């Protein structure tokens, strides 16, 4: 005797329903457009997110970060020698340490993003840390208690005290840590907003990269010209305050755009997947080469690390 299953949209008999729907297993991705599955609606909702409309929020974050870090680092030696009265050798060492730290922290930021937080929350948390560092740095340039007194006549200039340098170094460390979470995630997060399986959005991905590097170049140009000019001719308070305000606005705008973003969930440590590949390759080192059609593919496993739902095979390394 055939029973009927009634849904909101239509009626299906048990004989029409696939076996995995009866026993509670997760349906394959190919059935995600079927109205009998909640995943179909989730997939449709996910496809409505992302796209070009999310780009202003992402670009604002990257432009503000470049304004701040390039605008300060390009003229940092002048600030350390003229405002903090550090010897040239000590100022150069500080600049080198800051640049080296800011170059290493993206490795940590990328790992945290892929393994634990995801790109959106990594960018958000890092931007807030960066903002705190910029506020502290601006305060040290504006408030006289955070820097040594001005030089008087021909008398030797008083070098910044230990606690004044501690505030400076803590501010630089916060900006370096913040930059480490922003730099490796922003461009990848922007690319996540486009569906690679949609031919129209696939072409827009290249437009995104073009506009991304254009905006980054313009931000660097403004930083080394306008921001540096303000620092030298108007004052360090304005020269650091402008990027600080811009960064604050970008953080707010980036978070406001959250409902429109397409987010990939963190899928665990990439080192674990790398180790699995190495172990699998060693175990199967004696297996002969197979054709492309015989390669093992698992849509559900690949979905977490590919918005397209499948990692495309390449003959480049064969």
TrEMBL record:
GO terms for cellular component: membrane. Coiled coil: none annotated. Pfam families: PTR2 (PF00854). It comes from the Eukaryota. It comes from Acorus calamus (Sweet flag). SUPFAM superfamilies: MFS general substrate transporter. Belongs to the major facilitator superfamily. Proton-dependent oligopeptide transporter (POT/PTR) (TC 2.A.17) family. InterPro entries: MFS_trans_sf, POT_fam, PTR2_symporter_CS. GO terms for biological process: oligopeptide transport. It is found in: Membrane. This is Nitrite transporter. PROSITE patterns: PTR2_1. PANTHER family: OLIGOPEPTIDE TRANSPORTER-RELATED (PTHR11654). Gene3D superfamilies: MFS general substrate transporter like domains. The keyword Acyltransferase does not apply. The lineage of its organism: Eukaryota, Viridiplantae, Streptophyta, Embryophyta, Tracheophyta. The chain crosses the membrane at residues 128-146, 166-190, 211-230, 236-256. It is a multi-pass membrane protein. Keywords: Membrane, Transmembrane, Transmembrane helix. GO terms for molecular function: transmembrane transporter activity.
């Amino acid at each position: 005797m055939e029973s009927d299953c009634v849904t909101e949209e239509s009626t299906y008999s048990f004989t029409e329903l696939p076996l995995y729907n009866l026993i509670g297993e997760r349906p394959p991705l190919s059935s995600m457009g079927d109205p009998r599955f909640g995943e179909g609606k989730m997939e449709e909702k996910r496809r409505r997110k992302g796209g070009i409309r999310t780009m202003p929020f992402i670009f604002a974050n990257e432009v503000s970060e470049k304004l701040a870090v390039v605008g300060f680092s390009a003229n940092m030696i002048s600030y350390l020698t003229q405002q903090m009265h550090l010897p040239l050798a000590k100022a150069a060492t500080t600049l080198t340490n800051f640049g080296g730290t800011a170059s290493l922290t993206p490795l940590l930021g990328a790992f945290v993003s892929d393994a634990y937080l995801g790109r959106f929350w990594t960018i958000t948390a890092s931007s807030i840390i960066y903002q705190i560092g910029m506020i502290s740095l601006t305060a040290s340039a504006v408030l006289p208690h955070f820097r040594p007194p001005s030089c008087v006549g021909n008398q030797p200039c008083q070098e910044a005290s230990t606690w004044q340098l501690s505030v400076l170094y803590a501010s630089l460390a916060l900006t370096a840590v913040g930059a480490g979470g922003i730099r490796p995630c922003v461009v990848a997060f922007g690319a996540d907003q486009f569906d690679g399986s949609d031919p129209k959005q696939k072409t827009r991905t290249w437009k995104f990269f073009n506009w991304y590097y254009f905006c980054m170049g313009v931000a660097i140009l403004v930083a080394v010209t306008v921001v540096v000019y303000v620092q030298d001719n108007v004052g360090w308070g304005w020269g650091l305050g402008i990027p600080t305000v811009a960064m604050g606005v970008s953080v707010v705008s980036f978070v406001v755009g959250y409902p429109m973003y397409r987010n990939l969930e963190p899928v665990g440590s990439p080192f674990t997947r790398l180790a699995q590949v190495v172990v699998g390759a060693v175990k199967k080192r004696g297996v002969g080469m197979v054709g492309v059609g015989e390669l093992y593919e698992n849509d559900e496993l690949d979905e977490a690390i590919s918005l397209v739902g499948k990692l495309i095979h390449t003959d480049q390394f064969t």
